[in-house]
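Target chain:
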Amino acid sequence: MNVEYYTGVDERLPVPIMLPPTPEFIDLEDARILVADDVADTGHTLALVHQFCQGKVADVRAAVLYQKPQSVIDCDYVWRRTSAWISFPWSADLPVVGSGRADGAALSLGG
């Protein structure tokens, strides 16, 4: 699932937004779902996903690398608890766009 919330360092939308496509829970009433995320900062995105899954599956739990004290959801599995701002490698750099070459030429892989 893709939920958009943060727009910058400690800057976010008024509420988290679930982006399409959203999963269809067909014949999953006995399923046990584990929702994994990098950090539960406010916990609002995890709470949204948890609420979306509740009643459609048998059990839903959350696992995160880091949980902040202000999180509105208490995750079931947490690697570390912290109040510090965390810059993950996958979110600290801008996305790679274009060919990746300074001259704009396309790269050829193999062949």
